[in-house]
Description:
Elements: H1 2-27, H2 36-49, H3 59-71, H4 78-98, H5 103-116, H6 122-128, H7 134-150, H8 154-170, H9 174-183, H10 189-208, H11 217-228, H12 234-257, H13 264-287, H14 295-300, H15 304-319
Helix pairs in contact: 1-2, 2-4, 3-5, 4-5, 5-7, 6-7, 7-8, 7-9, 8-9, 8-10, 9-11, 10-11, 10-12, 11-13, 12-13, 12-15
Amino acid sequence: MQLTCRLILVLLLISPVTAQAQTLAELRTSPTKLTSQQEELISTWLAQRVPLMADRADLSQAIQSRSDIIAQADKATPAFLSAYASNLNDILKAELRRQKDNDLFAFNAVLCLAQLQQPSTIPLLEQLLEYKSAAVRYWAIKGLAGLLSSSADKAEAARIIQALSTAGTKESSGVVLGLIYARLGSADPEPCLTGLLKIMDARLKAYQSAKVLGPQAELHAIATAAQVWPQLKQDRQNDLAERIGKLMAFSALRYVRDYDELPPNLRSNLARIVVSSESLLVSIAQARKVKVGTPLSQALQSKRADRLARISTALDAWAGTAGSKKFHLQTFNAKPVALLK
């Protein structure tokens, strides 16, 4: 008798949730804008599951709740997705305020937002760009970058580029910064270039002061620059080439000056930046019927005995670092590159 009563009680507790889930499944196919009552069903369903994503004591439950929330977007109609994303955004925002120091919840929340790819999530994704966890920032960028590549709204795209470039000037993680650089090549090249240069200007200050420890992020900047430069007018190509020239020069100068003190991985990454930068500058110069060669790359391949001296000579020919009157960067109307601070 007691067992029967318990089973009835469990069924009574479960049945509203089951019925609600079934109703939600029906709403996912709605071709028209949802009513306020239908949106309330969505809100109620989410309110039951969103807090579970914060449960650090039961990771399987937190992950399952996240999966359930993401799954509702699969093959759903635009009408449903719009209402669903808006309600999820509001509930997540309120819960993030309550769960200030819960990295697990913040990660699950940003993963849900990034998967939805709905414009209404942009403000909260921008907020998560400043979160303390690099993993959260990484997924916030992925979410914004996905919206950037699919957006036909110029104002919306400009807002995302501004958010990404501002975040890039402050980013401490090389992996996260590399993702920002890489995603800045996925939209209109002109505003993307503005964002790219904004980040590079901030980073070049650290390069000139020899404070950069993880320069591999700039390899993504070079790759993005190689993607966008053919679509730019010559004056904007010059702006880009000037930054790439400085990046190349500061990396080569540090390679030569601090060679014996540099950790092998840092030395290797600086060399890769020099080679990649020079290759890109050669491509831009060749498009203008100017032949400059690859003296820095050749110098880096020479034997240890005279390698550093050859790099210095090649660098002066490229960037006028030792007072050369003629140097290759003049092709792009660039001035000589200053020495390291």
